[in-house]
Amino acid sequence: MEFTIAAVQANFIETPFFMYLVISVISILLFLALRGFNCWYWKINERIALQQETNELLKELIKENIQVEPPKTILEDDYARLFMMEN
Question: Is the pTM of this model over 0.70?
């Protein structure tokens, strides 16, 4: 039983493995192509750049040992006082 190259190639193309391989490659290429658009649309690259800049500024603050005022805590009495001032 001899197979010709054309017959073997036709059988290979019709196998489910080949179809899964083609679908996988197309899916990966689409993902890579659309990833750049998605990052641009949601401004992910800009957010990363801003976070890196914030980290650098925080590192400079730590190196200079600058004391940052902690946020003030608001007590229940303060809420009541604010509420009374509004009304």
Answer: no
